[in-house]
Amino acid sequence: MNILAFDIETVPDVEGGRKLYDLDGLSDADVASAMFNKRREKVGNEFIATHLQKVVAISAVYRNTHRDKFSIWTIGEESSTEKELIQNFYDGIDKHTPTLVTWNGSGFDLPVLHYRGLINGVQAARYWDTGQDDSNFKWNNYLSRFHSRHTDLMDVIAGYNNRAFAPLDEIAVLLGLPGKMGMSGSKVWDQYKDGQIKAIRDYCETDALNTYLVYLRWQLLRGELSETNLAQEYETVKQHLVQAEPHLQEFLQVWQGGAS
């Protein structure tokens, strides 16, 4: 098993908004407000279109059972540019070719990375391969909805039926996991305006961790892990969290407190 469960956090691309809506001279906050208003007028909610979502954090959980490796981290530094974050993400895919695991990655995370990679001039040859360079990718690549090289848990568990989609937070809590722990993606823009990049990165890591732990339960469901194997994988995660940064130790405390 060579798994990379990941999550991204985004904010409105105010520079893009200025270009598209002729908003020169307005502050970032005012541009973002205008973008929210235009989006609400168009679709009835303020959720910015994927191509105008600027990536400010990409966090991942990496697990390689063959080499007994487990790690949690956020790509780049707090000062890294959007291009650096996205290029670093795709470079990791080029190097390790992991199975990508997401919750709603097909509907949000990957389309955002596609658009923002295009805008930023990123290269991602391995990710976009559908068999032209590696014949194995013809039958199992990152782009096909029904291939396993990218596993969108929300999509798969719902049977590819969008009427059955569920939020990660609710599924995580039902499984005895911490879920959002008082934070949500809707608060990221306010934190970004306040310069709280570390808080955003920390939150992104807990979302990636929730996603990975749900993935392990799904592996139990589909018979890829036994209950004993699942308990061993959980213990691997817990041992890592014991010595991790405070926000991950808090995650562990909530998880253990809610364990049945």
Question: How does this structure look, described?
Answer:
The chain has 260 residues and is α/β, with parallel strands linked by helices. It has a single domain (2-258), classed as Nucleotidyltransferase, domain 5. 50% of the residues lie in helices and 14% in strands. It contains eleven helices and five strands. It has a five-stranded mixed beta sheet with strand order 3-2-1-4-5, with helices on both faces. Strand 2 (53-64) and strand 3 form a beta hairpin. Helix 1 (14-21) packs across helix 2 and helix 3 crosses helix 4 (105-120). The longest helix is centred in the last third of the chain and has 25 residues, at 197-221. The radius of gyration is 19 Å and the shape is globular. The protein starts with a strand and ends with a helix. The relative contact order is 0.14. The model has no long low-confidence stretch (mean pLDDT 95).
Fold topology:
Layout: E1 2-12, H1 14-21, H2 28-43, E2 53-64, E3 69-74, H3 82-96, E4 99-102, H4 105-120, H5 125-128, E5 150-152, H6 153-157, H7 168-174, H8 188-193, H9 197-221, H10 227-242, H11 246-258
Parallel strand pairs: 1-4, 4-5
Antiparallel strand pairs: 1-2, 2-3
Helix pairs in contact: 1-2, 3-4, 7-9, 9-10
Characteristic terms for this protein:
about 260 residues, alpha/beta, Nucleotidyltransferase, domain 5, 5-stranded mixed sheet, 11 helices, 5 strands, about 50% helix
